[in-house]
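Our preliminary data section would be incomplete without showing what the modeling component actually yields. Below, a chain of 429 amino acids is followed by its predicted structure, encoded as tokens that our downstream tools consume directly.
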Amino acid sequence: MSSIELKPTDKRLKGELSVPGDKSISHRSVIFSALAQGTSVITNFLTGEDCLRTVEAFRLMGVNIEQEGNKITVHGKGISHLREPSQPINFGNSGTTARLMSGVLAGLPLFTTAFGDESLSKRPMDRVIQPLRVMGAEIRGREDDSLLPLAFRGKKLEGTRHELTVKSAQVKSALLLAGMLAEGETEVIELGETRNHTEMLLPEFGVDVEVEGRFIKIKGGQKPFASDIKVPGDISSAAFFLVAASIVPDSELVIRDVGLNPTRDGIVRALKEMGANIEVHVHTHIGSEPVGDIVVRHSRLKGMTLEGDLIPNVIDEIPILALAATQAEGKTIIKDAEELRYKETDRIEAVVETLTTLGADVQAQEDGMIIQGGSPLKGGSVDSYGDHRIGMMGAIASLICEGEVIVKNKDCINISYPSFFTDLNQVLN
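Predicted structure:
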């Protein structure tokens, strides 16, 4: 188990920074390119462990994928040329790979088995498996077919209408991918708005998707064609630096070329509601995705209530928002976020344990937490629990701690942000 010792510092965050490519878009770009006919080039691809699991899955299915730094070249031959893997697919720690690939594997005429690491093997898969079975999918797994490892006896699926019972972009995307491979039309009705990268990216590959509010339709039998994609910076990675610059005195930071999709910018909206000094400047679009720069300066924050429809938009950023709340004036309440209990770890318990160890006043609730602001953080030894976002939260907390912070099991940060510590040191002055 690797650890890092982070000493107290009086440095501030200054300068400019570019964060790695968006994790969600990187996954989807590879999936759509591998299913497509022709050669696609993906630039600014996130080379974290999770996205490379998706790359390796398609390599095992016979797709020639070349990697040169953060440029990925996918030589797609079309859906009909995918072959049956000769060994089980390892999804590692990647929930996105597991759930989106389930939609693909269920609809291909192949037999496939897949497994994940200890953490992923505890995360619920029935939320994807049950609606896929309504389409005719044959999927078996542990615990009444709800957990990895899974076996897929792929077959032609039937398009159907799904009313989702969870707010999950992964479930939605899995069903749309299955619908693209199925006969007839598939309609997905969302419980609430979730990130919409699948709906925005598929048309770039020539696949028609009809979106009307919470209703999304896709016709089966469509064949994607190659498309070059430039992946914008990941706002979920930028979130750690947005909070860091907000809570470290005398900081001013510019984060360049960040994806500013309206279903992903909840971190900016939440911080602004807390009183953060943030400016957003959209300067281009990549496909339909708005991209721009974010300027953030140190400011005095105030507590807030984070709930309702904003939660799915900001679900991955709640750990770092909780750290911001410890430094805000007043109380912050986070609720309607029970989904946090089904991430890489139980993020509610992990956040509470980490921040409490460092000296904060945080109480867990069934669907969130209550944070008393204005807490001076002392330092201490904390565990990432194998969760990249908990590990990075601990590292950012060290910037305002009176004593040393030890982050155990730091290597999990490579899942989404391999250059995190390099980038952090670059802007500390």
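Residues 23-35 form the longest helix (13 residues). The chain is about 30% helix and 25% strand. Preliminary results of this kind motivate Aim 1 of the renewal.
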